[in-house]
Design brief:
The complex is a heterodimer. By secondary structure, chain A is of the alpha/beta class. Chain A is built from eleven helices and seven strands. Chain A is globular and about 50 Å long. The termini of chain A are far apart. The longest helix of chain B is centred in the first third of the chain and has 15 residues. The structure holds thiamine diphosphate and magnesium ion (MG).
């Protein structure tokens, strides 16, 4: 927490009460939806879950820095909180997880976590780790070619992705042409089981920025204000012709990698518990209560409301139609 | 109609298409200042500027991946891979990203890029400057694979590829660049992707080919005509999607089929064509379907006798045709 004499970050950053409260609602909706997805998975009704739990502050802070439907976002599979903050509803998420016809991300074609919406300028990705950072550079190059100013693209990835060739190539091009792109590393310190010191040869991923001629910034990824401040600065710099940024958000995932993982095989429960105590949602709630933005009772009421929405969306998604067999070969070619 | 080399036709396609539509950009290694190592993009920088003609670092995955990103935001990029032999780092981008973007987003996004790559042997390029790699791209849906053989087709098919709503891999045989000339229409026109053409009509056998091998097959067919064998030569032009109707129509007429390609025998498109004929035109056949292809090796070795042995030529094709006619 900041010193008493300092201006509280939400005031300094000009975040309105309404924005803070809707942000909290997004975080809670994300966590409640994630809880539900794990439950549905255990019940055999959702084949696959990939969790954003623990990454909520990183993703909300980044989402706040994006002008929705204007700037482009190229997410990865962990970014459920991000896409919810950008406008995908709880029902949208559940339809995607249940692979229903009306899944807005892929019409039931991609496994969970492959978020997409042309309307929101959220770009569809594959499962191939790191393969999307070259697309980030390409989108940013297209702004340049078209003479568009005041626009930027944000690409997100885990620290494990930074070992991939495609990651290196994307940042190389963005750096050479000083493109309006922001590369956000959600460093949760593991690539499935492999710890960060076996994925990244330097203590901070952001150090690599120097090699690409871009700004490198490290923030506490569990502090939504720190993330927003850095992401906003980076996006503004990109929009104003100041070049790309590699922003590293240090965080931790509070659940196994996916529903197919058992994280007890590679990390100690004490470590997980220590990070659970630093849960970014609790931290944000605490801040908002302390600064008189919201009360505990209001938060509890919000949580109940969100749960009711998750219940309704679960029922709706389970009752929603499957894609038709006849549609299996649609959209191979235009 | 102006007469152009194959290379000039390629350049003219990019030039005319770019002049008509400022969404079209060119990117690749050495494409801007130098005009490409084969000079396919010569003059484009001066005419269209560095915003639209972009020198890229030696990063093939990025050359294709950046093209994909630019297409996502509404451009029509032409990515050049300097030699087909170096397309491998871009394969993940081509097959996992470009080919699948439309399908995986249920039609929400699309990927109208062209990937141009010079390919083929016979120019002393050895193992890493003479490969034929088309077989790696013909079994993934979502992309189209085009290989022209004449200047007029090179221009019309390349413009069609640029305007195509889906990713097109466009292979240009290096030996054709300067050795083949022909009349080429001025301005914008399309040759249809997915349609084969009959280059020589004949009654006794069908020879299916593409790229440089079409020219060799035509030379061989003339030799055989003098011997009383009347061969039909079909230029496939597009390997994906294959023009099945044209293949079957020709075999139904002639009853004999030979497929000729510079790509290796095993896994080359000839196997697929043979299977199509066996499945759908068996009762028309008077002889087994034959394939003539490069040996199952990596590419033409550097040593002259080895390169000569590796490469097909009109004599080898004529021999295979004679053999088939005699069956
Ligand atoms: C190219 C590729 N290799 C391997 C995998 C399998 N895989 C999926 S996620 C993952 C770990 C990625 O870790 P990181 O980038 O740190 O992201 P995190 O999951 O920790 O958020 C691996 C190895 C993959 N999807 N793509
Ligand atoms: Mg990680």
């Amino acid at each position: 927490m900041e010193e008493a004499h300092e201006v509280p970050p939400h005031i300094r950053l000009g975040l309105s009460r309404q924005r803070l409260i809707s942000g909290l609602r997004t975080m809670i909706a994300s966590r409640e939806t994630d809880d539900r997805l794990w439950l549905l998975n255990r019940q055999g009704r959702a084949h696959f879950v990939v969790t954003p739990a623990g990454h909520e502050a990183t993703q909300l802070g980044c989402a706040w820095a994006i002008r929705v439907g204007h700037d482009y976002v190229v997410p990865y599979y962990r970014d459920m909180t991000l896409v919810m903050a950008l406008g995908q509803s709880i029902l949208d998420i559940l339809l995607h997880a249940m692979a229903r016809r009306d899944d807005p991300s892929s019409g039931g074609r991609q496994m969970f976590g492959h978020f997409s919406s042309r309307r929101l300028r959220i770009v569809s990705g594959s499962s191939s780790v790191g393969s999307h950072l070259v697309h980030v550079a390409g989108i940013a190059l297209a702004f340049r070619v078209k003479g568009e100013q005041d626009i930027a693209v944000m690409g997100l990835f885990g620290e494990g992705a930074t070992a991939e060739g495609a990651w290196h190539e994307g940042l190389t091009v963005a750096g050479i042409y000083q493109l309006p792109a922001v590369f956000v590393c959600e460093n949760n310190q593991y690539a499935i089981s492999v710890p960060v010191n076996k994925e990244v040869p330097v203590p901070n991923v952001a150090t690599k920025a120097a090699g690409y001629g871009m700004h490198g910034v490290v923030v506490d990824g569990n502090d939504v204000f720190a993330v927003y401040e850095a992401a906003h600065q980076a996006m503004e710099r990109a929009r104003n012709g100041g070049g790309p940024t590699l922003l590293e958000c240090k965080t931790y995932r509070l659940r196994p990698h996916t529903s197919a993982d058992d994280d007890r095989r590679y990390r100690k429960s004490e470590e997980v518990e220590a990070w659970r105590a630093r849960d970014p949602i609790k931290r944000f709630e605490h801040y908002l209560v302390e600064h008189g933005i919201i009360t505990h009772d209001e938060i509890e009421a919000m949580r109940r409301e969100v749960r009711a929405e998750v219940d309704a969306a679960t029922d709706a998604a389970l009752a929603a139609p499957w894609p038709s067999i006849e549609s299996i070969a649609d959209h191979v070619y235009g | 109609m102006p007469v152009m080399t194959f290379l000039e036709a390629i350049r003219s396609a990019m030039h005319d298409a770019m002049a008509a539509d400022d969404r079209i950009i060119v990117l690749g290694e050495d494409v801007a200042v130098r005009g490409g190592v084969f000079l396919a993009t010569e003059g484009l920088l001066a005419r269209f500027g560095e915003r639209r003609v972009i020198d890229m670092p030696i990063a093939e995955c990025a050359i294709v991946g950046v093209a994909i990103g630019a297409a996502i935001h509404g451009l029509l990029p032409i990515a050049e891979i300097q030699f087909a032999d170096y397309i491998y780092p871009a394969i993940d981008q081509i097959l996992n990203e470009a080919a699948r973007l439309r399908y995986r987003s249920n039609g929400d996004w699309s990927c109208p890029i062209v990937v141009r790559a010079p390919f083929g042997a016979g120019i002393h390029g050895a193992l890493y400057h003479s490969q034929s790699v088309e077989r790696l791209f013909t079994s993934t849906p979502g992309i189209k694979v085009v290989i022209p053989s004449t200047p007029a087709d090179a221009k019309g098919l390349l413009i069609a590829a640029i305007h195509d709503p889906d990713p097109v891999i466009f292979f240009e045989h290096k030996q054709l660049y300067r050795s083949v000339r022909g009349e080429v229409p001025e301005g914008i026109y399309h040759e249809p992707i997915g349609k084969a053409v009959v280059r020589r009509s004949g009654a006794d056998m069908s020879v299916f080919s593409y790229g440089l091998m079409v020219h060799y097959a035509l030379t061989a067919a003339e030799q055989l005509a003098a011997e009383g064998i009347d061969a039909e030569v079909i230029d496939l032009r597009t390997l994906a999607p294959l023009d099945r109707a044209a293949i079957l129509a020709s075999v139904e007429k002639t009853g004999r089929a030979l497929i000729v390609h510079e790509d290796v025998l095993t896994g080359g498109i000839g196997g697929e064509i043979a299977a199509i004929i066996a499945e759908h035109a068996f009762e028309y056949l008077d002889a087994p379907v034959r394939r003539l292809a490069s040996p199952d090796l990596f590419a033409a070795p550097f040593a002259d006798p080895l390169e000569d042995h590796f490469m097909l030529n009109p004599q080898k094709i004529a021999a295979a045709m004679r053999d088939l006619a005699r069956y």
